[in-house]
Amino acid sequence: MQKWEYLTAPLLVHNTKMILDNFGEEGWELVAIVPGPNPENLVAYFKRPKAS
Questions:
Q1: Element (H, E) at 11
Q2: How far is CA 9 from the centre of its chain?
Q3: What pLDDT, in 10s, does the model give residues 5-43?
Q4: Following DSSP, what letter does each residue of 1-52 receive, concatenated?
Q5: 3-class secondary-structure state, position 1
Q6: How far apart are CA 21 and CA 13, in angstroms?
Q7: What is the pLDDT of residue 37?
């Protein structure tokens, strides 16, 4: 059975591509983006397979 690890990270609206590319390079898959505490921020949820 596949096991997963999860990450929650702030996502600045003005720099989303660079931030998402960096997480993708580390093997994180974007699951969802939700509004953050103010209009300039979002919260991103990621997952990746857990190392055995």
A1: strand 4-12
A2: 6
A3: 999 999 888 888 999 999 999 999 999 999 988 877 899
A4: ---EEEEEEEEEGGGHHHHHHHHHHTT-EEEEEEE-SSTTEEEEEEEEEPP-
A5: coil
A6: 14
A7: 86
